[in-house]
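A favour, since you know our structure tokens better than I do. Just paste the record in under my message, thanks.
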Amino acid sequence: VQLQASGGGHVQPGGSVRLSCVVSGGILSYYSISWFRQFPGTEREVVSCISPAITWHADSVKGRFTISTDSAKSTVYLRMNGLKSEDTAVYYCAVHKPTQNCPRTQYAYDYWGQGTQVTVSS
């Protein structure tokens, strides 16, 4: 399984960005797929996850971020609205194959896309 993330950039507070993650070499609908973010000097934290069984968002982004999939394009999206400076981070997509339970820890994920930087500032 290979993942290719894109869509980061610089945005002003209150703005929006959509991240994309193309998944190849596997079947999107079988897996738990998450977006993580990483602040300098910290471990990656899960932001949102989607599987056939679950759609989940962290409390810090609930109501602002939306995760979705397009199976025809084998792509997972993270729509980020109402961005705040504290959302500035490197964002990663990741696949957990064994279950559809959307694990919350980075250590449960075996496949990662390259990070994409999102910077929120005026």
